């Protein structure tokens, strides 16, 4: 019997990955390659969409070679991607009209401020998208490109341009320009998707002056989008699944039932709670999102996005030069038993969920002459855990669903001290899976369901394996005392005007 494999393309912010999984969800090959990031002005973050495509194919070809398989054994391709990052390209030439504008970029901040002055538009955004208006999402980035690239608006109105998040861009390139589409999970991150109707919101398109002709078709997450052009891999392979990266991680962690939750620790940190077949209008600075769509059934999630997680450790390494590598943060932090009263609020890009205060900047507070390097490193790790607690409290308040455990992934989840801190700060078990590439795995699962490799989510749930479980070690009194200190530090950071 011929073996079948799934090729998962995982296009991240810092790296592109290609992972190959077999029918038992075993990782057969993994290839990663870094991407360039451009910062042309303070607060602006851009990437080269052509480079993203080229690197993604390079990693795919190498992964196929390393797996020792033939392309005919690949049953399907799944795509997962950094989500809100925005690309607009010419349908005729296939060339982007500008660099891709990253989800991190604040260059459309003025456009968002203009939107906020229109009370009716603001209410439309809130009611129809269930999201907090921010430069983070695609809508203002699209407007920025149409307003700032010469001739772009006229070409868009004529139907000569195409918009996409990175999944749409990769799909368009994979199919030789035949398919311009996305899935519901990525569409819901644009702030142009009507969450209740599952379609592009025509009222919002009109109010923001974005031509409908620019937008991709929307399909379920598990769906045969099209076949790859023979020019790409030398053969046709079905592209059968698309999920935004955080939704893919939720799926790869097998959080299939309401009340199950995961957090990813990367550059940023992303907490998602499965809310089942209902979406939750947050009153606490969170965003409702489509988790995935299987057939006609939509599963929703409530999400808290934290802009700075691993970035704080990177600042300690590159900015303060008190770390030689991110990996050594654990053993350095273990040299002390606590932070000696030091709190680190890493608001380098403002505060995200649940605060959404773009003016706040980072703060170290509680320093004394006895403060050592280990205290600062430990405070940076603790800040990751406290920010997750902030989101957790907001999610509990909004969703009213019992959360019994937190499943974790991402580079920093391999830090045992951080995971122990997280369990202590939350008062919940924290469970880490054996398979660390859960985002790529989620893309593989969604494509494999469409391709018939797996029958249902119950079959997938049985494949999840635990690597480690971290249980709470603080008393409730200690937990709340430490968290009160964090909230006090945040209030000081928010009140600072330098």
What this model shows, in words?
It is a single chain. This protein has 498 residues and is α+β, with helices and mostly antiparallel strands. The protein has a domain at 5-246: ATPase, nucleotide binding domain (Nucleotidyltransferase, domain 5), CATH 3.30.420.40. The protein contains 17 helices and 23 strands. The N and C termini lie far apart (68 Å).
List keywords for this structure.
alpha+beta; Nucleotidyltransferase, domain 5; seven-stranded mixed β-sheet; 23 strands
Please summarize what this structure is:
This protein is an alpha+beta fold and 498 residues long. It has a domain at 5-246: Nucleotidyltransferase, domain 5 (2-Layer Sandwich).
- The CATH H-level superfamily of the domain at 5-246 is ATPase, nucleotide binding domain
Second CATH tier, the architecture of the domain at 5-246: 2-Layer Sandwich
Instruction: Name the beta content range.
Output: 15-25%
Using the CA coordinates, give the radius of gyration: 22 Å
Sheet with most strands: strand arrangement: 17-18-16-15-21-22-23
Distance between the termini: 68 Å
What oligomeric assembly is this protein in? single chain
Main β sheet profile: 7 strands, mixed
Low-confidence stretches: none
Main CATH class of the domain at 5-246:
Alpha Beta
Tally of alpha and pi helices: 17
Topology at a glance:
Blueprint: E1 5-11, E2 15-21, E3 27-34, E4 46-47, H1 49-67, E5 74-81, E6 87-90, E7 100-101, H2 109-116, H3 119-129, H4 138-148, H5 152-157, E8 161-164, H6 166-174, E9 181-183, H7 184-187, E10 193-194, E11 199-200, H8 202-207, E12 217-219, E13 222-227, H9 230-233, E14 238-244, H10 245-252, E15 261-265, E16 269-276, E17 287-294, E18 297-306, H11 310-319, H12 329-333, E19 343-345, E20 363-365, H13 373-399, E21 406-409, H14 416-426, E22 430-433, H15 438-451, H16 457-461, E23 466-470, H17 476-494
Parallel strand pairs: 1-5, 5-14, 9-12, 15-21, 21-22
Antiparallel strand pairs: 1-2, 2-3, 4-7, 6-8, 10-11, 13-14, 15-16, 16-18, 17-18, 19-20, 22-23
